[in-house]
Design goal:
By secondary structure, the protein is of the alpha+beta class. It folds into 2 domains: about 5-70, no CATH class; about 90-200. The protein is built from 5 helices and 8 strands; from the N terminus they run H-H-E-E-H-E-H-H-E-E-E-E-E. The chain has helices spanning about 5-20, 25-35, 70-85, 105-110, 110-130, and strands at about 45-50, 55-60, 90-95, 140-150, 155-165, 165, 175, 190-195. The strands form 3 sheets. It has a 4-stranded antiparallel beta sheet, covered by helices on one side. Strand 6 (about 165) and strand 7 (about 175) form a beta hairpin. Helix 1 (about 5-20) packs across helix 2 (about 25-35). The chain is flat and about 60 Å long. The two termini are about 30 Å apart. Bound molecules: zinc ion (2 copies). One zinc ion binds next to helix 3.
Amino acid sequence: MDAGIVQKIFTDHFETYRKSHVVDTRQYHAAESIMSCRTPDQGYHIDGCPNGDYHVLLYNSCKHRSCPQCGSIETELWLERRRRQALDCRYFHIVFTMSHDLHPLWRKNRKVFVNLMMRASWHSLRELLLDIRWLGGLPGAIAVFQSWDDDMKEHCHIHYIVTAGGLTADNLWVSAKKSFLIPTSNSKFGILSCYRDFELFKHKDH
Ligand SMILES: [Zn+2]
Ligand SMILES: [Zn+2]
């Protein structure tokens, strides 16, 4: 999808939408940023060569994380940095979720809530994987918090990309079983799913 389409949708319909819906400051700022991205409202800069042979005037980007025109570049750069950090091993993709009854708390305390959820999920993962029944080692992991599901409905959850192995107390690498890392049925840990061989960091030999 052309990133400019989202900007056009907002420009054409946001004013009407906000007359009949409650829009908080954060949402308003996001909409304003998306609508003004790379337009005169954001100001401009000049790209040119030092000799003055060439110069071009460009409108500034909004750099808001919700803006598709800015976000796609940031996403690619983030992905590239993570790929460079990745170890040459298999990875599992694990999703932690939580009761929707807690969403009102998240709405009012976003930063504290995300920090707590990150910490609690990592403690759970570490506790499980240090257990000799599942791995017996400390894995490497990358975590990303998301507050929406695929249908754009409120759904706080955390995606974990976890190494299929870890370091023992003696600093030795222990590999996970081929197709299983941790049980997903254990409600104590709030784990929704666990998929093996996450594509992004797929083992180079496979
Ligand atoms: Zn933008
Ligand atoms: Zn997600």
